[in-house]
Amino acid sequence: MNDDELNQQIAALVRTATTPPSLGRWRHDARPRPASAGPGGFWKRQILGPLKSGVVAVAAAALATATVSVALVVRHQATPPSSPATGALLPATPAATPSPVPTAPPTAASTAPPPRSAPQTTALRPTAVPSTAATTPAPALPAFPHAPLITSDGHGGFNVSGSGSDWWHLGYGTTGSGPAKTYSYPDIAATTTDVSLPPGVRCLSVQPVQGGDAYPGHPGRTYGSWSNWFCN
Amino acid sequence: MHGANDPSTSEFPPFEEVYERCRERVYHYCLLQTHDMPAAEDIAAQTFMAAYAAYDKRRPDPDTVHLWLFRIARNLAHDHRRKERRRNQLLQLLGRTPEPTDSVERVAETNADLDRVLAVLAKMKERDRRLIALRAAGDLSFREIGEIVDMPEASVTVATHRAYERFRRLNRETP
Q1: Which residues of A touch B (CB under 8 A)?
Q2: B97 pLDDT tier (thresholds 50, 70, 90)
Q3: ipTM greater than 0.95
Q4: Which of A150-159, B30-39, B46-55, B100-109 has the lowest mean pLDDT?
Q5: What is the DSSP secondary structure assignment for residue A114, as one 8-state letter?
Q6: Which partner for A200 in A78, A131, A228, B76 could form a disulfide, CB atoms 3.0-4.6 Å apart?
Q7: SS (HEC) of A68-96
Q8: Chain A CB contacts of B114 below 8 Å
């Protein structure tokens, strides 16, 4: 067998036998947008703008099949902290009833990505900087280009883009066990960014929040401890 | 391959098109490089994420955008191997064996022949594996491979031939 034949054989094997199921989930959101917007145009307008406030609030709510209501509040900063945030990331705990789900316009549903293992809805809204929070209306469209994947065992994740080539995986699950990394990748639709952070951001910390939505001051919310800082 | 297009004078495809066109080749390249399905999926996703982040600014030539993607994937796969090596060294120092991933089982379920190919590639040096992966999964010419790995075309031709020679030998030695 010469080089070309061997090459063809390897090529045929790898092409026909290994396309993973997750490739389908990498498909980009089919949300229509003008070509002139270029990549990221939608997200730049709808997400990056509101996020200029400097604080990101992420509600990963209504994990319907697992009846888990968790809000992850993600804080970020531009320079590495001198000391880590106190506390550890708390595991999610079951809630009696699913939290109200931020509404998504019908168009989002009609252009949703391919079916996933569990229905879920996620919302992201700006919070906490008083001067801008008071004047900046909540985005009318769902914060994520598409809902994060949650696998049948309750694990999932999404992608947060920093500046340049820096980015983070944020994994979550119905329990605090299991390799979140393994489960978070399918959600990273290769042509979308779930959350874009302002330039210069290097570090993230995550706080679990139960109850309510992602807006500050909501009554009846329970806050967990901030995680340690994760810096790129 | 690094030429930028003037959007006013040439067709600049949306990233979605590039993704659809290249995703499988990039994934297959990553699989041959890492012989680990979850890692390959991660690296392929990272590749497109990095490309997506830079696409607007860089505006790569549509005809050679795949070479740009393979170059990103090559760097990410290299980083992955380096981290794996460090991790395994640490585990050895601690007297532990690395935990096996499920990728071997998953591959075996899919195709025993492919499992064998990946097992043989795993024994090869990184450069040999990279050349074979770019040639087989990337379906690239020697000239294109040379652009990605920064080698003259003639050197790539010779090096790839030698890589295949070593592949055959290792394949014979593998029970």
Answers
A1: 1, 3, 6-7, 10-11, 13-15, 17-20, 22-23, 26, 28, 35, 38-40, 159, 161, 164-165, 167, 181-182, 185-186, 188, 190-193
A2: low
A3: no
A4: B100-109
A5: S
A6: A78
A7: EEEEEEEEEECCCCCCCCCCCCCCCCECC
A8: 13-14, 17-18
